[in-house]
Design a protein that fits this description.
Blueprint (H helix, E strand, L loop, with lengths): L9 H13 L15 H7 L2 H7 L8 E5 L4 E4 L13
Helix pairs in contact: 1-2, 1-3
């Protein structure tokens, strides 16, 4: 992951984290986490996104609709009611 590294914008960092969660992939950072900015640390510690990634089913998301953009991806979760997505 490049979050907090290589000049990614905040929106690019959020997108990268979301895609990582959809892929159910392990999280490897390419930067020194002691020197990361607070807004990037907040992205990396987002418990809702981590819950999607670490869902017990471990199933990757799949593209369900793709006519150029926007792209729609769906991911099965073991219990979607356990993850609260309200702000």
């Amino acid at each position: 992951m490049l979050i907090g590294n290589y000049g990614l914008s905040l929106d690019q960092s959020k997108l990268q984290m979301a895609l990582w969660a959809i892929l159910a992939a392990p999280l490897y950072m390419s930067n020194d986490l002691r020197n990361i900015r607070p807004e990037h640390k907040e992205i990396l510690q987002n418990t809702r996104i981590i819950a999607v990634d670490q869902d017990p089913l471990g199933i990757q998301g799949r593209i369900v609709y793709n006519v150029r953009f926007p792209l729609t991806i769906f991911k099965f979760l073991s219990s979607p009611t356990k993850i609260e997505f309200t702000d």
